[in-house]
Structures are given as structure tokens and as C-alpha cells.
Amino acid sequence: MNNDNLNGAASKPEEVQPMTAIPKWVWLAPAAALAVAILPLYYDYYIFLRWLVAGTATYLAWKEYELNGMMANSYVWIFGVVALLFNPVIPVHLFKALWVLLDLLTIAVFLGHYRLRRLVD
Predict the structure, then answer these.
(1) Is 13 within the bounds of a domain?
(2) In whole angstroms, how far apart are CA 89 and each of 15, 25, 80, 81?
(3) Which of 82, 85, 109, 118 could form a disulfide with 57 if both were Cys (CB 3.0 to 4.6 A apart)?
(4) What distance in Å separates the CA atoms of residue 50 and residue 65, rounded to the nearest whole number?
């Protein structure tokens, strides 16, 4: 039995380690940019979005890998797929409706990971 939970507080997932000073904007900036991307905008914005999302996803995948004892967990793989999908070097071209769906799913990934990391601390 785990005695860490004596006050009735929710226990932390065992496979998730506390974050190490990742600023809140690392999750919120790409999530907000993805929400704006649902609107019809100039192509330059979507190029900026690719750099922002791919870079942030790569950073978070690496941080998750480090925090997990240099082992991959689900979020390492999810952020890796996000980084590949939004990469600006070899862009993936899809229909706008599909991008809107992917943008919404990616917002959920960033905010879900933010919430998980904040609950762990």
C-alpha cells in the first residue's frame, strides 16, 4: 500500500516524473497558434505555424524522454508524430478540412500534456 496518499489527495501516475521548469508558454503558444490556424489565413502564417509546432513538439518529446529515464513513453511518440506531421522542411500537404481536424487534435495533445505535467508537480 502506498502511504504517500494519507490525506486523500489523488496520487501521481507512477510512470510520469515531475517536470523540470518548462515554462507554461511552451504548451500554450502552439495551442493558441493552432486555434488561430483554423481561420483562412495567408500561407506565411502556416509556414510559421509549422516551425512553431514542430519545434515545440520536438522539444517536448525530448523533455519527456529525459524525464522518463531516457526511455520513450506514449507522449514521446505522440510528439514525434506531431513534429513529423508539422515539419517545415518536408511539408505534408492535406486538405483544409483535414488540417482543421489535425489542428484540433494537436491542441488537445498540447493541453493534455500540459495538464498532466501540472498535475504531477
Answers:
(1) no
(2) 33, 24, 15, 15
(3) 82
(4) 22
Does 2 map to a domain? no
In which residue are the cell numbers 508539422 written? Answer: 86
- Over residues 27-73, the pLDDT tens digits come to 999 999 999 999 999 999 999 999 999 999 999 999 999 988 888 88
55 inside domain: yes
Quote the pTM value. 0.80
C-alpha grid cell, residue 39: 481561420
CB atoms within 10 A of CB 106: 23
∠ CA(69), CA(19), CA(84), 5° rounding?
A: 70
Judge contact between 100 and 38, C-beta under 8 A.
yes
Split at pLDDT 50, 70, 90, the class of 80 is: very high
